[in-house]
C-alpha cells in the first residue's frame, strides 16, 4: 500500500471528490457518496464516480480512508469491473463544519 499522505479519518468525515486509489496507488475514481446500513449503523461502502459512471466499492474493499485519498484493496482490473450501485442507503456527505456543528449541538454549544 502507498505511503499515507495525510491523516486517517472516519467514513463520516469523507468528502465528495476525494480521490479513490487501487492497491498500487492508481487513482481510478472520486468519492460521490457514502453508504450506510441505517438499521445497524454500519458502513456499507462508497459510491464512486469513474469515467464509466457511478460504481459501488464495498466496505470490505476499502483498506483505509485519509483526508486526501481512499485506499482500496482492488487491483486495476478489479477497479475497472466494479458493480453499479444498488439499493443501499445513501447518506449525505456533509462539509467539515457540519460535523463541528453537530458535535456542538450534542454538547450544548449552539451557534447564535
Walk me through what this model shows.
The chain is α+β, with helices and mostly antiparallel strands. 14% of the residues lie in helices and 34% in strands. The protein contains two helices and seven strands. Strands 1, 2, 3, 4, 5, 6 and 7 form a seven-stranded mixed β-sheet that branches. Strand 1 and strand 2 (27-37) form a beta hairpin. The longest helix is centred in the C-terminal third of the chain and has 11 residues, at 96-106. The model has no long low-confidence stretch (mean pLDDT 82).
Could you give a short description of this structure?
The protein contains 2 helices and 7 strands. The protein is α+β, with helices and mostly antiparallel strands.
